[in-house]
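Tip: read the tokens left to right.
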């Protein structure tokens, strides 16, 4: 691909009316209706994957008392300056301000969900997912479109498990990541990130956690590169790096083993013998952040999204005004089948309408004229300029639905 002709996601986002940023909210995107279609499709996909894998969806507050991040260790590690903190006066006593934080991550609050009631070994592994909105105080010079934002949406999950359950849980997370990244035709690579210099927890637990991750990779026959010293402060992790169409390397998915947070928040469960050991906490994200992932997808596909992600999947183009009525019938048939279709009924030439549909990267154009109306068919063209000829609507629906289903 000619690098010079490539557009960045900010330009494509403007041209296709997907998203933009404005000085009124630096580092936080505004999503236009078409961009929101992509966002929602990805949300749907990740929900399908997690539900299939036995996750239970949850939601935790965006604004919480800062003390939770002191207890988790994030306050010390990231510094209060990397978070959005608000000093609010106590309603009953002005002299006692209370510090609140817009959560930069979901993990500490997930432990509150776990502690909601006593847990038994029978409930483990307990897989709690959350599509959470986070705030991180990135420096203004580092904020960049959707790639580096101050407000992000994470496809997060925390799994509470016994130590024996680690291999199966981490293994099935790696499977999920492979399934996910294959569906976008990304090349992917695993990297094992080990203990950093500044860390919480004992060396014994670090050794145990690193070994556990190594073993899972070995058992699954997966090769992993090294990221020495790049683990989270509470535990080692396996990161997934992908290569996009331009050969650039991105770190997206992550699975992290954590013995520290269960200790910091005194999490426990009752085992078969009535003892109360601590569960292990496994953190995982598949996209990392929706914003960043959509930026990468937008540049990877250069706005030519696969049909399942395309904001408009079909543009119907009547050749003349007299074909409006039949076009409307076709439109209703497609909409009834949950296809995102639009009818271009502007007073423009057919050529101009075809050009516009191509500029908007719409996967399919349906041209409707006298012959199509008479034969009760539709003339179908693809965005690649391929002419599929005259098809029945049902025949076309079978084709486009299987394309959407297989995410090609
Ligand atoms: Zn987490």
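Filled-in amino acids:
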């Amino acid at each position: 691909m000619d690098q010079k002709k490539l557009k960045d996601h900010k330009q494509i986002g403007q041209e296709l009316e997907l998203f933009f940023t404005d000085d009124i909210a630096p580092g936080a995107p505004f999503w236009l209706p078409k961009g929101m279609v992509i966002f929602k499709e990805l949300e749907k996909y990740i929900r399908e994957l997690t539900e299939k894998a036995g996750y239970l969806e949850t939601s935790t507050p965006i604004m919480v008392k800062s003390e939770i991040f002191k207890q988790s260790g994030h306050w010390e590690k990231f510094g209060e300056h990397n978070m959005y903190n608000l000093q609010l006066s106590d309603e009953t006593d002005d002299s006692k301000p209370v510090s609140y934080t817009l959560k930069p991550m979901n993990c500490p609050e997930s432990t509150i969900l776990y502690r909601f009631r006593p847990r038994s070994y029978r409930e483990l592994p307990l897989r709690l997912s959350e599509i959470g909105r986070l705030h991180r105080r990135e420096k203004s010079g580092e904020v960049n479109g959707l790639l580096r934002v101050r407000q992000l949406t994470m496809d997060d999950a925390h799994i509470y498990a016994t130590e024996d359950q680690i291999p199966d849980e981490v293994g099935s997370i790696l499977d999920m990541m492979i399934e996910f990244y294959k569906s976008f035709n990304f090349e992917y690579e695993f990297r094992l990130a080990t203990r950093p210099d500044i860390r919480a927890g004992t060396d014994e637990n670090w050794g145990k956690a690193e070994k556990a991750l190594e073993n899972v990779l070995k058992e699954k026959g997966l090769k992993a590169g090294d990221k020495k010293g790049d683990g989270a402060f509470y535990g080692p992790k396996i990161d997934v790096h992908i290569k996009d169409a331009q050969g650039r390397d991105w770190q997206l998915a992550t699975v992290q083993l954590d013995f520290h947070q269960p200790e910091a928040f005194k999490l426990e469960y009752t085992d078969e013998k009535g003892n109360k050991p601590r569960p292990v906490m496994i953190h995982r994200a598949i996209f990392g952040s929706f914003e960043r992932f959509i930026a990468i997808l937008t540049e990877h596909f250069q706005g030519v999204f696969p049909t399942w992600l395309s904001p408009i999947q079909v543009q119907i183009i009547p050749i003349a005004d007299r074909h409006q009525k039949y076009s409307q019938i076709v439109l209703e048939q497609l909409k009834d089948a949950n296809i995102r279709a639009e009818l271009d009924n502007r007073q423009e030439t057919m050529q101009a309408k075809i050009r516009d549909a191509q500029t908007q990267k719409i996967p399919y154009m349906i041209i409707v004229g006298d012959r199509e109306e008479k034969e009760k068919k539709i003339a179908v063209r693809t965005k690649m300029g391929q002419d599929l000829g005259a098809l029945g609507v049902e025949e076309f629906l079978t084709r486009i639905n299987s394309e959407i289903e297989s995410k090609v």
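The mean pLDDT is 92. The longest strand covers residues 151-161.
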